[in-house]
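User: Hi! I'm working on a homework problem where we have to compare a predicted structure to a textbook description. Could you give me the structure for the chain below?
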Amino acid sequence: MSQTTPPSAAPVSGRFSVSPGAAARITEIISQQPDPTGLALRVAVLAGGCNGFQYQFKLDTDRAADDVVIEQDGATVLVDPVSLDLLDGAQLDFIDKLMGAHFAVTNPNAASSCGCGTSFSLA
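Assistant: Happy to help. Predicted structure tokens:
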């Protein structure tokens, strides 16, 4: 079970979760880096994309004081508070199919999304 925890507050359950598959892939990716110390996957929602908002995934060592830290099966995910509002109730997963492998967000707040799955619009 994932846990969403702001740096100095009680757990925030149900806000944004990380699937076991995504956690395993994050751990694998970070372990392959030359210096994995302190690395985490940052998930952000940015303006843009073909539907108004787009997801961004990047490895990061910088943690802001207001970042929410999600830990799941040894993997660490960072989310800024503005992005967390748009990810409320969503889950990060890792999809590995014949046509390719990628991180995907199942977001109940998205009214529509594009074919590539990296952008969405709100209702």
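For your comparison, note the following. The chain has one domain: 3-122. The longest helix spans residues 20-31. Good luck with the assignment!
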